[in-house]
Amino acid sequence: MSRGNNLIVILFYNLLVFLVYFFSIRYLVVIPTEAKVFPFMNIIIVVLLTIFVVTLLTVAIKRFISSKDEDEQKRMRRMQLLISPLTGLMFIITFFLLY
Hints:
This protein has 99 residues and is mainly α. The protein has 3 helices and no strands. The radius of gyration is 16 Å and the shape is elongated.
């Protein structure tokens, strides 16, 4: 795979993580405001599903990175380290702009 394809895979991974976090946090905000009683089970399910999906995505991207040669692994890890905080910052900005 070329460097461009690797960048697309990492950006797609970060987009998926962004969407999982955004919708899970959004759901966690909506649950208590619309429920008559505090729905503990719904909150537990959302938190566990979020942890499971993010862990699954992380394992997938680590396997993808480990299948490359040494130099390509270093480049992809560096790209991931630079892009991940930007995704988190984008998540925080988007969440506060929409709520």
